[in-house]
Amino acid sequence: MRDIEALALVNPSGYYASNSPEDYISQLPEERREAVTKLRQTIKVNLLEGFQETMSYGMINYVVLCSLNC
Description:
46% of the residues lie in helices and 17% in strands. By secondary structure, it is of the alpha+beta class.
């Protein structure tokens, strides 16, 4: 079975209703949590100044927030 098919069995919508990265990770299948946590830590350590971790579309995102004057 392909990974995406296995994920669909766990969460048929493919969408995680999460308000925080921690909440998102807690909803992942157990076998994926450690890898996603390590990836998140690596990204945060190497994230360039100005980027922020956010939640969007039910997933963790890294964005540069910008006002209309930037």
